[in-house]
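ok so for the tutorial part 2 we go from a plain amino acid sequence to predicted structure tokens. step 1 is just haveing the sequence, like this:
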Amino acid sequence: MSNIFMAQLKPNDFSKTEDKIAVVIKEFTLKRKADGIFQRYSEPYIVSLAIDQSGANSPSIDFNLLPFPNVRKGDKIEFDGQGHLVYGPDNPGEFVAYSVLFMESDEDIRNLGKTVEKIVKDEAVSLGIKALLAAVPTYSTAITVLRELTSLVAKRMQENKDDELFRRNGTLLRDVTPPFDVLRTYTGENDFIKSKVSIIPLSTSNRLGKASKRIKL
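step 2 — the prediction. this is what the tokens look like for a chain of 217 residues:
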């Protein structure tokens, strides 16, 4: 996984304790389909989960889902504005951890959001995430539970005959330089998906996409 700077950030341009950030997917490419060669189109979708310091202290998860009908092998999906929201805009406190899952749907995607949200809630309860975060509300706990939760969501959706395409995780910290890695873009890929995730300060984060939904645990 590689990263590049979107721009040079001046120290006085961003307040790490007051300003907000957004974690966004800038674009992704469907390099290869998981379904059979006789299907012309795929229906990939993105499931994202995030926990910041507030979400760890008062256990909750930021959840977002976006489906993409009629995508062909080799298609690059580019988002208008700043991109598809994984987290924010918000000030994360000391940290924000996130997990992004790319899946390929095998069935009608119209009720996908409700289905996946229910799975997230059910598996979060079965994992005891609320108790784990309450006991140790740190970034290491947050990313650990998100990775496990993402794995369980993928497994449940595979039981519905959906296919996992790609998974990526990240942890952004306040007390590093630059804070929260603002203005950086990270690129990751495997045989199926290539994607770019950017961290942008609120001062440049106009025209953002659909906001994530906070799920209380």
